[in-house]
Structures are given as structure tokens and as C-alpha cells.
């Protein structure tokens, strides 16, 4: 497959200011007539090139006349039309079979409805068009379909006309007044019910809101609707951004390659990010609904009104929009807990990506298949870059920067550089060196040491930064790293103020006067920069910070570091006493002033995968054994506390308030430790929670805890769960996921069995992710020394590639981490990558991921 390079960007030869689309919709045979007004862009005589993936032109017309054979021809992947003059009308007709579209890109069928997914390059599977994001067009769309089968016909913009046709057909016309790139086009033809509501914007306009789902799912849409209205109000209040159409529709579909899609005025969602009720959704699911609804809504400005010039600029919309949705969710709940959760996700997904063969900059230089670049680096690290800019500017100057960005680029396709320039001008800051965050891949390391001179009463903080080579980038320049620090007086438990230091040199020292005694360092408070900090702080210092640090993230981090030191030390044969950790946990769980949600985060053991990331070479068995032992010890030492917390946090009634969610989180942690303690009645208590819970958060947590063990309750609970929820796809996903994620010696065999289960299907990406996605995140099971885990995943990739290459390619990266493991495991992982690459007809998506993973 050919490589696309950022440096090859050229403005388009032809623009398409207007497009009319006419759809005769039918699952087996859909006809699409497209009428494009095209205008020559610049002084050249190059033909008009229209991308078309798998399309055959049934008609080509120019200015209403059938085009002659010398006027057009097909080449691999596009239709070339020779045109004279500066403005012409070009018409094409194609036929599609949406019911046979298993890639879920373009126009496809899902659960009896027809819908589209065009980002990144799906529009070329619907009609001939220059499929690139810098071509902005006004869309006029007519949809025609059988009325009984598809009573609802939706597209972008506002509805302008509708009517009845012959033979039971009806039609609807939608016009979108905002010029948009074709990746934001969408249509839905369906028989769905609507949760209808409205929102009055800050300028007093009334917007009709609709969430469209299967009739039976209507009671599960309330949380999504509330999230939408909260998002609309938040974007007005925080960014001054108002919604701009008369309607805003959301449609939930069962088969979707991603979380959701921000099509203008018609968001299409994976149903898992719309539907929520206490019986079937966990608190994490509720938060997911809120966050994704907000994310897609916020794209209306950061992505739609200002879009991307080319796909190398993807983080322009995704990083910024993740930053916006993270802050929205923090405002809706707890800032401290949200930050801890976001950093945990960043470390688990993005730090791993940054340290492996698929590492790439936030603004990549090249790709083979753009779908492979919807990564944690583009999204989550991209958001961290915006967060650092916001931190350096402060709220007023950051808002001045975003105002300038939106005003200057409204209606345009912009670049990351345009964003940075707006921040520099609006925020009055020089970001020259900061730009390296967009250019250089990899996670910087910062080594921090403190020395204290009692004579001068001065403390010196010495910082040393380094950035390891990544693919294609052997040499790195120093980054501009904003670090929030505080120096604590161990005698008083207070500090002299929080300071923002800018580390810009490879080595830099900062002096602090007036310290009679050596202080304790709290650094990267709030996780001010996405870096790895290495310090020589003692267990005593960390214990102090876990009791006294007034920055919740730093306090959590001190707890984590205490635990990491014990576990990594033990694996390396250097036992460290665990008393400090047990004391720290005791202190946190008995402090009545702390938010239970924070407590649950603070006492959480680092995951096996995170522990692996702290080691030069990952030893999955040793990590597992050490972690289990520490969990058991903490469980046993504090057993009465876990029992008390578990009993105390039981709520008579369900509520989705932050307090209720926090109580459930802590309750589930207590149950985990209680069962890990080995208490005889542990499984029985978990089973009672499983049976009596009035919500899925407690039920699934109890199931997961039981699934890690070998009790009779394990088997019973899994059976009950399946029988109770087997008919609901989203909840059945949890049954697959819980077993694939179980920390149990038989998991690898169980996953093999579940892959043959009658309810398992490769056609539904959620089901694939629930089984194989969860399994690859289960370090101990996936990296089973037999190599069976690798083989299972490779088999799945090969089978899925024939149906849905995008989803198949997303399973490849875990196999690419072979350098991090021992020689035996590494060879087995490489062997599977080689087997994948040997498959004839392998997709571009999987080829790119597997070949890069072998390097
Ligand atoms: N902007 C959307 C990206 C997306 C996507 C990308 C590749 C293949 C399928 C996809 N569906 C949606 C989602 C978002 O970030 O909001
Ligand atoms: Zn997005």
C-alpha cells in the first residue's frame, strides 16, 4: 500500500461549492444520483478527479448531457473527468447494496435500518466525490424509501420538504446551509421512536432535539438527553458557542466501528453510548454516555464549523474536543476524580503506544490507512497538549485564544498550526518550542532531584529531561514542559505555594529560598504535563504525601508510587515492607472528609499492565503473583474495615448522583479487597451483592470479582447473568467482557470457547471488542506462555479482516509489544504477526499495523 505524506499536501484542483444528492434507498439496491457544481481552483488544466471506492458509474453527465467516452475514464479508485471552463455541473449515478456492506463504512444496514459512516473516507463508498476534508459544500439531500419499512428519513441540516410517492414510497428533503466536508455527511432511514425535547439557545432560538432509538429502548434515553442539554448550555457558558440549526438529531445503531460520529445536525451513535438505565448500565457506562454525547456535540464547533484541512490535522478537532469533553465531565462531577481517571486512561493506552513500534506524533508525518490513526495519541495526548496550553495561559487568555481561533477560522478547513497561532496571538504567548509536542513522538522522562543547603537555607530542584528515539525520529530536541510543583514542610504538612515551572532545557535547576529543613517534593501536580517523572523520593516521603498532599492527583500518585515500589521491588527480589502502604490505605479509608470516589481511586492497586510498563522487561507471571499477594495482604490486614465499608455504602435506592456513584465505587473496591483477603464468606458476600443489587454497577463488579476465583458462586452467577440478560446485546457484551477480563488461569481457554459461542459474532464490533478487545487488555491471560492467547487473537484478526478491516486492525497493536517481553513470548508474538502478513488479500488497514509492529 502507498504512503500518504503530510509534506505532499496540495490545495484541491477543483472545489465543489454545492452538491445535490438523491437517494432511492433499499437494503439490496440503493441508487445514488449526485449533482456536483464544480469550480476550477487556480489556473491549471488538470481533470476533475472524483474518488470512488468500489463504485461503478452507471451514468456520467456534464451540464445535463451524457458525457462522451473521451470526457471521462476510470482509474484505480477514482473517476477522472476532463472539463473545460471554470464552473460546470457534473452528475453521476451509482448503485449500492447496503445490506452487503460488512465494513460499516459508507452506507450500510444495521438492525433493520440504513445509516452511513463517512469519516474518514467512507463518502467515496457512497458516491463519486473528491473525498478530502478541505472541500466544503452545501448539501441538498433527497431521500426516498418504502414508507412502511423506513418511516423515518433523516439527513444533515434542517428538513425542508416531504411527501408521498408511488407504490408505498415517501420522500424527505434536507438542506444543510453550512458548507461541510463530505466526511460529515449522514443519512438514516429507519423505523425508530423518538425521545423529543427542545433547547433554547443563548440568543433565544428554539432547537428541536431528537434521540432516535428502537421503541423498546426509549426509556433508556433520558441520561443521553440530559447530557445533550447540559452540553449545549456548557458550550455557551464556557466557550460562548451556540448551536446553529433548528434541529439536532441523534440516532443509535447497534453496529458501529467507533463510539459515535459528529455528522452535522445528525450524530450517529454506537447504541452503547446512548442507552443507559440502572438495570443494564454501570456508572462507567453512564459516564461514557455523558462524555460521548458531549464530545460529539462539541464537535459542532471544534470539527464542523472549523474543520481539518487534511487528516494529518486530525488532532486539531479530536484533541481539542477531548479536552473540551473532559472539562465538561469534570464540571458535571468531580474534577479530582475525572483527572485521575483520564490520566489512568492516558497511561494505559497512550504511553504504551508512545513506547512501541506504532508511536507517532500528535501531528503525524505519514500514513497508509487513515483509520489506523484514530489513536490515543491523536485523541488523548492531543487533549493533553491543549491542557498544557490552557495551563500556561490561564482561563482568560485561553478563552481569548479560542475566541480568536473560532472567529478567524469559522467555515474553514484549518491546521494545527492555525490553532497554535491563534493561541499565540489571542493568548499572548510564544509557543515556538511548545510546537515540538506536535512534532515529536514519545513520552518525555523527567528526572527530579532535590538538594538542600542548610547554610543558605536554599532548596535546589534539579530537572533533567530525556526523550527516547521513536520510529523515524532517532534524535529529539528538548521539550517545553510545564510542571506544577510544591515543596512541603514535613513538620507542618503544608507548603509555601504551588508554582508552575517551565522546563525547557535538557537540564535545568530551580532555587527556592527560606527552607530551614529539607522539604518533600510534590511534582507534576494535577498531571500538568504528559511525562514520566522519576524521583528518588523515599517510601516515607510518599507516605507523607499520600496523607498530606492537597493536590488530589499528586496524593493519588503518591499512593500509586508507594504500591508500585513495593511490587516492582518484590519482583526484582528486593522486598520492601508493605506496612507503609497498609497504613496509608487505612488513613484514607478512615478519613470521613474525603470523597468516597477519590478514596476508591487512591486505594486502587496499579493494574498488571501498568506494573509491566514500570519494568525493563515485562514478566506477566511474576507481576500477577506479586500483585495478588499484596492485594491479599491488604485485604486481610484491613478486613474489618472492608466489611464495614461494604455494609455502610449499601444504598436502599438507586441514584445517579455523584455521591451515590462514589459510594458504589468504594463499595466495590471494599468487596474486592474483602474477597481477596481469603475470608471464607467472601464469595458468598459477593454473590449476595450480585443477586440483590439494584444496579448494574454493583452487579457487574460482583460478577467480575467472582469470575476471578473458583467458587461455586462463580458458575452460578455467570449462568444467572446470561439467562437474565442474554437477549439484550449491550448487556450480553458485559458477560463476554467479564470472562475475557477475568484474572484466572483458565481465561485463555475460556476465550477460545467463547469465540465459538452461539452468541458470538464477528459482524458486531461491540461483541468483538467485548471478547477479544478485553482479552488483549488482560496481561496475564493474553501473554500466556503457551502463546495460545496470541494465536487466538491472530485468528480473530484474520477472520475479521475479510469482513471489517478497520475493527480487525485495532486488535493488532497488542501483538506489536513483543520487544517488551521475554525472548520466548517475543518470538511467539512475532510469529503471529508474520502469519497475519502472509495472508493473501490482507487489507491495507491490517497490513500497515502488522508490518509496522514487526519493525
Ligand atoms: N470523529 C469520529 C471518528 C469516527 C470514526 C473514525 C474511523 C472509523 C469510524 C469512525 N466513526 C467515527 C468520532 C469522534 O471522535 O467523535
Ligand atoms: Zn471526536
From TrEMBL:
Record EC number: 3.4.11.2
UniProt cofactor(s): Zn(2+)
All copies of domain Peptidase M1 alanyl aminopeptidase Ig-like fold, residue ranges: 442-535
GO molecular-function term, one example from the UniProt record: alanyl aminopeptidase activity
Alphabetic keyword roster: Aminopeptidase, Hydrolase, Metal-binding, Metalloprotease, Protease, Zinc
EC primary class: hydrolase
Domain Peptidase M1 membrane alanine aminopeptidase, chain residue ranges per copy: 224-437
Residue span(s) of domain Peptidase M1 alanyl aminopeptidase C-terminal: 539-855
InterPro entries: Aminopeptidase_N-like_N, Aminopeptidase_N-like_N_sf, PepN_Ig-like_sf, Peptidase_M1, Peptidase_M1_dom, Peptidase_M1_pepN, Peptidase_M1_pepN_C, Peptidase_M1_pepN_C_sf
Pfam family, one: DUF3458_C
Reactions that this protein is recorded to catalyse: Release of an N-terminal amino acid, Xaa-|-Yaa- from a peptide, amide or arylamide. Xaa is preferably Ala, but may be most amino acids including Pro (slow action). When a terminal hydrophobic residue is followed by a prolyl residue, the two may be released as an intact Xaa-Pro dipeptide
Signal peptide region: none
Domain Aminopeptidase N-like N-terminal stretches: 99-184
Membership in a protein family: Belongs to the peptidase M1 family.
This protein's name: Aminopeptidase N
